Amino acid sequence: MNLQNLKGQIEQQALPNLYLVTGEETALLQKAKRLFASIIPEEDQEMNYASYDFAAVGLDDAIADITTPPFFGDHRVVMLNNPTFLTATGKLTDGQEKALLSVIEQPIPGNLLVVFAGDLKLDKRKKITKTLLKAAENLDLPRLNERQVAQALHGLLEQRGFRIEPAAEQELLLRTQASYSKVLQELPKLLAFAADSKVITRQAVDDLVIKESTAQAFDLADLVLKGQREAAIRTYHDLVKNGEAPLRLNALLLGQFRLLLQVASLQGSDAEAGKALGIHPFRVKLARQALRTYPLGKVRDGFLKILDMEIQMKSKQVDPLFLFETFMVNF
């Protein structure tokens, strides 16, 4: 089910006793939490609403709450965050597991237990995990793809009477790696900047939105592969001057070249390749665009030279800027 389904259940008061919320899109997960909290009137939340972080406080308080009937109300909502006991490394005591199984199998009418697993990798071999998966209503909130992020952005802007220039939209997606959650974080300052014109320009994005480190690494890798030595060296110098550690910068550059090699070996859609590599499909799209321009042999050669540069940084007292300049001259 999705957020729209959840809204419908809340409006119709057709609420199951147990939810499992999974997904990687932070903004949607936060929206889901607000929706679950809205089930309880604000004046009753002190009595009938609670949120616990299992990683911080354990399970006992949540069990005590969820086994207590609603106090002068129709519902009690208990949210359980970071349920690491559902993963391969986490665990419950025998007593806690028995108590939680009892809650799942014999819920108190009106009480809702909402387990926020987020992007945790659940161990489906565990009895508690299998029981939860079987009994719970699963609200899954995966990352939005680039098209969905763009559609959501247009919808939000139209509601406010704004629009965004195509070049500005493309740059915003690049700088945020097409992350819906990050786009939402950047939007308030862009809207404030464009308050008079109602148009978000490319210049506004350039001035206000900081590039993700992966986007910076992509820019630097692009300059390296194009053989633009002066521009690449200047960019490297600027990044170091702005606080990027040379080893971290080298690792990002190495990671970008590695990504190009990995993407070159994969078939299927951007989404399928992204899932296989554990990255956003937008990064796969950018990598495939780059691979249409750069010979694979050149990418492989660059990867090996950057790897050698990293080894020298770690094993010798050599100026990293000198190493990068030497790399660019030789490459």
Short descriptors:
DNA-directed DNA polymerase, Zinc Finger, Delta Prime, domain 3, 331 residues, 60% helix, Rossmann fold, DNA-directed DNA polymerase activity, two-stranded parallel ribbon, P-loop_NTPase, alpha/beta, Helicase, Ruva Protein, domain 3, 18 helices, globular, DNA_polIII_delta, 3 domains
Task: Give the topology.
Layout: H1 3-12, E1 18-23, H2 26-37, H3 45-48, E2 49-53, H4 54-57, H5 60-66, E3 76-81, H6 94-105, E4 111-118, H7 127-135, E5 137-141, H8 146-160, E6 163-164, H9 166-175, H10 180-193, E7 199-200, H11 202-208, H12 213-226, H13 229-241, H14 246-264, H15 270-277, H16 281-291, H17 296-315, H18 320-330
Question: Overview of this structure, please?
Answer:
The chain is α/β, with parallel strands linked by helices. It folds into three domains: 3-141, Rossmann fold, CATH 3.40.50; 146-208, Helicase, Ruva Protein, domain 3 (Orthogonal Bundle), CATH 1.10.8; 213-330, Zinc Finger, Delta Prime, domain 3 (Up-down Bundle). Helices cover 60% and strands 10% of the residues. Strands 2-3-4-1-5 form a five-stranded parallel sheet, with helices on both faces. Strands 6-7 form a two-stranded parallel sheet. Helix 1 runs parallel beside helix 2, helix 9 runs parallel beside helix 11 (202-208) and helix 17 packs antiparallel against helix 18 (320-330). The model has no long low-confidence stretch (mean pLDDT 91).
